[in-house]
Write a structure and sequence with these properties.
Structural class of chain A: alpha+beta
Radius of gyration of chain B: 23 Å
Distance between the termini of chain B: 15 Å
CATH superfamily of chain B: Formate dehydrogenase/DMSO reductase domain
Radius of gyration of chain A: 22 Å
CATH class of chain B: Mainly Alpha
Oligomer: heterodimer
Order of helices and strands of chain A: HHHEEEEHEHEEHEEHEHHEHHEEEHE
Helix content of chain B: over 70%
Number of strands of chain A: 15
Helix content of chain A: 25-40%
CATH topology of chain B: Formate dehydrogenase/DMSO reductase fold
Strand order of the largest sheet of chain A: 14-13-12-5-15
Number of domains of chain A: 3
Bound molecules: iron/sulfur cluster
């Protein structure tokens, strides 16, 4: 554990806990949701696995190593808050997530928007991704453009954050920590893609979480530790999902980091009915279409279709690519959306 | 502040007269109580508005996802700007050796202290999570301009307080024995704060030396504070902010605003504290000239800032400039540029317009213009992002400040005014010992008639 990581833990005890977990992870416990032994007791939760026949299990750990562990040693549990924070800041090793959006296929179904909003507890006008009506010039045709956070490799938003509440992970994702964000909104000012939103008021599911908090207190009061722990795991802040959302803090597209950890596609990508989205790993040079599940070479897809990125002149190096709206499958209702002076308002 | 004073031997009669004049307004008069009572009332009402904001969140303001900085940030820039005048007058003019600034220097420092102390709070008011201010110290990233801002503002505030307090020490010692009908606590306060000062030449040497160091230190700090503040904007790639001259542009603008604020305070002190003898027509005349000078330099930067992008008219720049020159913000833009800068500047070039009353009126125009100028710098830029604003409620598209926002902004002004009022009623507003020193020298010169002093 580096000095840097050490600093993140506020108390010695937490640090000890984290080190222990680190150590146990290295021993080789299944990635995802497994942390063993005493840490589980500390966290007050345990989900014991059935005893295996041969007593051993092969698994891949967080460092992508294949390992064998005695089954009797394994206890599954939902990671607690500190663990969520730690791994959320670290990201998935060896990955470089990338998204490709095929503008030729977008018909403004807005299923991506809805799926994202429901997963992240957002109101209809609060966007991680929005589909914009675009037109580049008077003589060119209008088109729809889904616009999530571009997960810039040179992100201006993280550069200005005073408290490191928004940061770039090793797998290319730009995340936010709404437990740390002070709500200065400097990152909004700095983002050239208007990709960020702010919780100006109590977020949508606020009441529900308040209710759960009360419930939790009650369970603890009656000594029902296990139920309480289970509930706590549900309401604990998950940095990779940015839920529960909080008043006075930032939110934005997270490349659905929680889904990626489970080996699934982002919510928006799988929700699109029209095959607009590809998602994948640049290191593997492969992206998969969220609708057709067809996997293609990233480099070939971009080369063959003249893929481009938004506002490349700013040097932000987005991880989101666009394929131009040529041979559009769906017509745009209007001839032109530009006002007389030729500019978007 | 002249660095030459190493002993203090003023003409006794003159000292008595000066001390009497200057100490007369010190103390809590009835009008002071009334004024403070009024300020407190306004403060409480506005504080209630802030309470609502804390409870409900920033939704009670006019800001939304696109115009995510509004009046508060504009107000923050204004506060930092005004506070810089302390540096301009005491340090820049003082170190050059202008003697006429002596009675004004303390007023300038009061403005500096009053505005710098509140500037930090103004930014907290804008925060979505003011309960997490300490995160800035816990997790501070030195790469962020906000952190630089926090550091330099604190430094500037500290130096300004010292620059205010140090030259006050001899005055407190002088005043101690002369406060016949002052309340007991005030006499005690003077006793403690005068730090056993007895006008020895050794003490003066230390005072002069520390003042000199502070005056030199305050220059880079003040330049730093406002340059860094301008970088909050210049560090982004938005049209209207993406400019390389933002540092000097803000700095020169700050001098205009600060000078205007000092003129207004001078006028007030002169009239209600009966200090016509110390804040003379000549002082106003000189401050008027200073204001013209700063305004000219600021105008030069304005021309650069608006004309250069106007010649190029890049796509987003064009939208932005159109909104300023002829669109949604045109009225405010031209009102601040003409009414708040150019017209007063031209008028002040003529002597009759530098008479105390007229000058103060012009200074009020300039100061109001300066506030709205910050508004014009912050808001219109945010209304024109690179990608279109779509699919959001009407309120997200244009910014219009709410009553609560105005009230909270007013609260910050009230706090500044309270600090300024208290400082100017608890302590003498004009440096007694420096005035006495000056007067004695004049006396000497007149008596010996060895040289005639220049008009300066
Ligand atoms: S798109 Fe905006 S929010 Fe996303 S990484 Fe780039 S600058 Fe940051
Ligand atoms: S609003 Fe939050 S995430 Fe954005 S810069 Fe400020 S502290 Fe960082
Ligand atoms: S990747 Fe996830 S967070 Fe981003 S827009 Fe899609 S669903 Fe929302």
């Amino acid at each position: 554990m580096s000095e840097d990581q050490k600093k993140k833990f506020t108390s010695d005890e937490e640090y000890q806990k984290a080190t222990r977990r680190d150590f146990m992870k290295k021993l080789g416990i299944i990635g995802g949701a497994a942390v063993a032994g005493s840490a589980a007791l500390v966290a007050g939760m345990k989900f014991e696995d059935k005893k295996g026949k041969d007593g051993y299990i092969r698994a891949v750990n967080d460092d992508n190593e294949l390992i064998t562990v005695p089954k009797s040693e394994i206890k599954y549990l939902k990671p607690d808050f500190t663990e969520l924070q730690r791994r959320g800041r670290e990201g998935l090793k060896g990955r470089k997530w990338v998204m490709v959006i095929n503008l030729a296929k977008c018909r403004n179904a807005r299923k991506c928007v809805e799926a994202c909003q429901s997963a992240h507890h957002l109101r209809p006008y609060e966007y991680h991704i929005n589909t914009l009506k675009m037109q580049d010039g008077k003589e060119t045709a209008p088109y729809y453009m889904p616009k999530p956070c571009q997960h810039c490799d040179n992100p201006p938003c993280t550069a200005v954050c005073p408290v490191n509440a928004t940061f770039k992970r090793q797998d290319g994702i730009v995340l936010i920590d709404n437990e740390r964000c002070i709500g200065c909104r400097f990152c909004i000012a700095a983002c050239p893609y208007s990709a960020r939103m702010f919780h100006w008021e109590q977020p949508k599911n606020h009441e529900e979480y308040m209710h759960h908090e009360e419930e939790y207190e009650e369970l603890m009061h009656h000594g029902k530790i296990n139920e309480a722990a289970e509930l706590k795991a549900k309401i604990d802040y998950d940095i990779e999902l940015n839920v529960p959302q909080k008043k006075g803090t930032i939110s934005k597209c997270l490349f659905s980091a929680d889904r990626l950890r489970e080996g699934k596609m982002p919510y928006c990508v799988s929700a699109c009915p029209n095959g607009v989205f590809y998602f994948g790993d640049e290191n593997e040079d492969a992206v998969t279409n969220g609708t057709t599940k067809e996997t293609v070479r990233l480099s070939k897809l971009l080369r063959d279709n003249a893929g481009y990125r938004l506002l490349p002149e700013l040097g932000t190096q987005p991880r989101v690519y666009y394929l131009p709206p040529k041979n559009r499958l769906f017509d745009f209702p209007e001839e032109s959306i530009l006002p007389e002076d030729g500019h978007h308002s | 502040m002249s660095a030459s004073v190493d002993h203090f031997s003023p003409d006794k009669n003159k000292l008595n007269k000066i001390a009497e004049d200057i100490l007369k307004p010190v103390g809590f008069s009835k009008s002071f109580m009334l004024w403070m009572g009024f300020l407190t009332m306004v403060f409480l009402i506005c504080g209630y508005a802030y309470g609502i904001q804390l409870e409900k969140g920033l939704i009670v303001t006019g800001m939304r996802d696109f115009v995510s900085w509004g009046m508060y940030i504009a107000n923050f820039v204004f506060f930092v700007a005004v506070s810089l005048v302390g540096m301009l007058i005491s340090a820049v003019l003082g170190l050059i050796g202008y003697k006429w600034i002596k009675p004004i220097a303390r007023i300038a420092e009061i403005v500096a202290v009053g505005f710098a102390m509140v500037a930090g709070l103004v930014i907290v008011v804008d925060m979505g999570r003011p309960d997490r201010v300490h995160h800035v110290f816990l997790y501070g990233r030195v790469q962020s301009p906000i952190l630089w801002d926090v550091t330099v503002i604190t430094t500037y505030m500290t130096i300004s307080i010292l620059l205010y307090f140090l030259p006050l020490i001899p005055d407190l010692a002088i005043a101690k024995g002369r406060m016949n009908n002052a309340p007991k606590w005030l006499v005690n306060l003077y006793e403690i704060l005068s730090l056993k000062w007895n006008h020895s030449s050794k003490q003066f040497k230390i005072l002069m030396k520390s003042m000199r160091i502070l005056l030199i230190l305050v220059v880079p700090t003040a330049f730093g504070i406002h340059t860094v503040t301008s970088w909050l904007f210049a560090a982004t790639s938005r049209s209207g902010w993406d400019s390389t001259i933002f540092g000097p542009y803000f700095l020169t603008g700050a001098f205009v605003a600060g000078t205007a604020a000092v003129v207004i305070l001078m006028f007030f002190y002169r009239n209600s504290f009966k200090l016509e003898k110390y804040l003379t027509d000549d002082h106003f005349d000189k401050m008027g000239k200073l204001l013209v000078l700063t305004a000219l330099v600021y105008l030069y930067f304005n021309i650069n800032e608006y004309l250069v992008p106007a010649l190029k008219m890049k796509r987003v720049d064009a939208l932005h400039l159109h909104a300023l020159f002829a669109g949604h913000h045109a009225f405010l833009f031209w009102a601040t540029q003409l009414g708040g800068l150019i017209i007063p500047m031209i008028l002040m070039m003529f002597k009759p317009f530098r008479k105390p009353g007229v000058l103060t009126f012009l200074a009020v125009c300039v100061l109001i213009g300066a506030w709205f100028k910050r508004y014009i710098i912050v808001i219109p830029t945010m209304e024109h992002p690179n990608l279109p604003i779509q699919g959001v409620p009407e309120a997200f598209m244009v910014y219009s400040p709410t009553v609560i926002e105005v009230a909270v902004t007013l609260m910050t002004f009230v706090m500044s005014l309270m600090i300024i009022t208290i400082l100017s009623k608890v302590f003498p507003i004009i440096p007694i010992w420096e005035m006495a020193e000056e007067a004695s020298h004049e006396g000497d010169a007149e008596a010996s008639k060895t040289e005639s002093l220049p008009a300066e």
